[in-house]
Amino acid sequence: MWLTRTNPNLRLPANFSFKDIHALFADDPTRLNHPPHFTNRCIFHRSRSASASLRALSPPPEPAPASQPEPPISLPGSERLIVVYSTSLRVVRRTFDDCRDVMSILRSYRVSIDERDLSADARLVEELQGVLGGKTKLTLPQVFIGGRYIGGAAEIKQLHEAGELKKCVEAVSLGFSLNIF
């Protein structure tokens, strides 16, 4: 009538395996032919050694062909100019702010700037796409200094903060070729 207490520290396994169930139903457990047991380590070792053998027998990978560096993007006929493709439309606020910021940075150097407003002339869009050749996504502003493509607003701001933009602008305003990049 008394309840027997069980040991609380005694834990039963959470999962059970039936891999040796055939031993329970065998007539003579001593004569039972057990299949050889392989451990995971042995199987993984075989797999690893097989893949290593295949790698050793395979021919070495062909070296990648040395690609010629692409020529820099340039704007013909503007070797002594600073050309900025921008927009004056305030439809997309971020684009307008970027164009205004780039123009402000370039005007701070007190040099003449050829500003080409894409919202005023649709032919300028085709001209810019022809120059860039579809290599970059057409975002505004796009800046060319001394006929060479410099980049957009992020690149101009980065060059301005590093002091490199001043060297580029001064070289072009003095009539030197742009060999900084």
From TrEMBL:
<feature type="region of interest" description="Disordered">
    <location>
        <begin position="54"/>
        <end position="74"/>
    </location>
</feature>
<dbReference type="InterPro" id="IPR036249">
    <property type="entry name" value="Thioredoxin-like_sf"/>
</dbReference>
<protein>
    <recommendedName>
        <fullName>Glutaredoxin domain-containing protein</fullName>
    </recommendedName>
</protein>
<dbReference type="InterPro" id="IPR002109">
    <property type="entry name" value="Glutaredoxin"/>
</dbReference>
<feature type="domain" description="Glutaredoxin">
    <location>
        <begin position="82"/>
        <end position="150"/>
    </location>
</feature>
<feature type="compositionally biased region" description="Pro residues">
    <location>
        <begin position="58"/>
        <end position="74"/>
    </location>
</feature>
<dbReference type="Pfam" id="PF00462">
    <property type="entry name" value="Glutaredoxin"/>
</dbReference>
